[in-house]
Design a protein that fits this description.
3 strands
C-alpha cells in the first residue's frame, strides 16, 4: 500500500489494497461517480483519508437503509 505514515492521502493502489479490490475497480468507481472522490495532483489521483472515511459511512448508511 502506498501511503506515507505522515501523509493523509492514498493513491489508487493504496485504496485498492485498503478495500481488497483491484485497482481497476477503484478507477471504475471514480469514473462512474460511485466511489470515494479523488483529487488530481497533476496527473496523479489521490484520495484523502477523510474522504475514504466519509465514503465508508455513506456506504454503511445505504446498506442499513436498503435492509430496513
Amino acid at each position: 500500500m502506498t501511503r506515507n505514515e505522515h501523509s493523509h492521502w492514498f493513491d489508487t493502489s493504496g485504496v485498492a489494497a485498503h478495500y481488497g479490490v483491484p485497482e481497476a475497480t477503484v478507477r471504475k468507481w471514480r469514473h462512474m461517480g460511485t466511489g470515494p472522490v479523488g483529487v488530481k495532483f497533476g496527473r496523479h489521483v489521490r484520495y484523502s483519508v477523510a474522504e475514504l472515511e466519509r465514503w465508508e459511512r455513506e456506504q454503511a448508511v445505504r446498506q442499513i437503509r436498503a435492509s430496513a
